[in-house]
Design a protein that fits this description.
By secondary structure, the chain is mostly beta strands. It has 2 domains: 77 residues, SH3 type barrels (Roll); 121 residues, Beta Barrel (L,D-transpeptidase catalytic domain-like), CATH 2.40.440.10. It contains 2 helices and 17 strands. The strands form 4 sheets. It has an 8-stranded mixed beta sheet with strand order 10-9-8-17-12-13-14-16, sandwiched between helices. The protein has a 5-stranded antiparallel beta sheet with strand order 6-5-4-1-7, with no helix packed on it. The chain has a two-stranded antiparallel sheet with strand order 2-3. A hairpin with a 2-residue loop joins strand 9 and strand 10. The longest helix has 14 residues. The two termini are 18 Å apart.
Length: 219
């Protein structure tokens, strides 16, 4: 069973394509107006803020494609996985070799570097009534949590939103990868409200390598 699951992950990783070896990330230098097409006349009246809402880190979003003077980027929030265009001069583009792949069926999280699996961790995923949403997402912001707080030591707040909860505990129904401290759950099971829970050791390994803007694929 473990071998079969691992082969499925290798196939999923290969499906990302060789271009996924270095994922381009746009780090904003200023608030960026959102356009539905690479044309100034298609402004949506929405602006991507310079800073993230919780930790005030610089907003960083994956770049899906480029056109002269424009970047098509993945956006946070609803609808899940939506994308739009920003002006290229609003951001600095850098590349990350890191990517996260979550397989809800096998309840495992895989960390890839240059499209190769370097670590694998069992995780808690959403139960059937509150499933973890699937799709193409990214780390909206990486948060270090106070020792002893719920979900500590780390929370990766994702661009994904719950398909069940429009809001949860006062927030926008945002999906996160976080710890099991004070919350519980057995890695390798499906019993969360949609978030992905991990052990402290796993998160401490990840936080030394993965940060805001990291692509996250959930299947």
């Amino acid at each position: 069973m473990r071998t079969a699951a691992f082969l499925c992950v290798l196939a999923a990783a290969a499906a990302l394509g060789s271009s996924a070896h270095a994922a381009p990330i746009a780090a904003l230098d200023r608030p960026a107006a959102i356009f539905s097409a690479p044309n100034l006349h298609t402004w949506t009246r929405i602006v991507l803020p310079l800073r993230t809402p919780l930790s005030h880190q610089r907003t960083s979003v994956p770049v899906l494609s480029r056109r002269r003077g424009w970047l098509r980027v993945l956006l946070p929030g609803r609808p899940n996985g939506h994308a739009a265009w920003i002006r290229a001069n609003a951001a600095r583009v850098w590349s990350t070799p890191w990517r996260i792949l979550v397989r809800t069926s096998s309840r495992r999280l895989f960390v890839l570097r240059n499209n190769r699996i370097v670590r694998s961790f069992p995780v808690v995923v959403g139960k059937s009534s509150t499933p973890t949403p699937r799709g193409r997402f990214f780390v909206e912001e990486a948060l270090s949590l106070p020792r002893g707080s719920l979900g500590s030591p780390v929370a990766y707040a994702l661009s994904a939103r719950s398909n069940v909860f429009q809001e949860f505990d006062g927030g926008p129904g945002q999906i996160a990868i976080h710890g099991i401290y004070g919350i519980g759950g057995t890695p390798g099971t499906a019993e969360s409200h949609g978030c992905i829970r991990m052990t402290t050791d796993a998160l401490e390994w990840m936080i030394r390598r993965l940060g805001t803007g990291t692509p996250v694929d959930i299947t």
